[in-house]
Amino acid sequence: MSEHAEVKMLEFPQRGDERGHLVIVEGMKDIPFDIKRVFYIYGSDSEVIRGQHANKRTEFVLINISGQSKVRIKDGRGGEEVFLLDRPHTGIYLPRLIWKDMYDFSTDSILLCLASEHYDPEEYIRDYGAFTEYVREERDVE
Ligand code: TYD
Fold this sequence. Notes:
By secondary structure, the protein is mainly β. Helices cover about 10% and strands about 40% of the residues.
């Protein structure tokens, strides 16, 4: 786990040819963690807001392998940014302690999520006030 990792867009190697496209995502190589969990979200629409949580330990990479969606990220210290995920060979890296809202899903959206940890509901912070408090406490310890 990198301590002061930043949210960033990633571009993955493509090895497509006349037979079609092929995109490669290797843990500890194309993304900065080993992949312990994969899940994907589809069947959401433009009315839905997903996520709405931060994680104490888990880092993620989100890739819209089909269609598109947006992700709004907040660092709990006033920083906020919106990213459009609309290409199967790019993804967004989200370090731990980032609040994320995924929304504006196209009907053909398939959002692939790669995670650095197994699922543990205890490490999800689902209350925004609790998140900002957690971030503040962690900064005070540093
Ligand atoms: P949730 O965290 O609400 O999804 P999202 O981040 O897309 O908004 O998860 C929905 C349900 O799925 C919830 O009951 C928890 C469960 N879940 C797992 O059991 N394992 C997982 O890896 C994930 C991501 C969710």
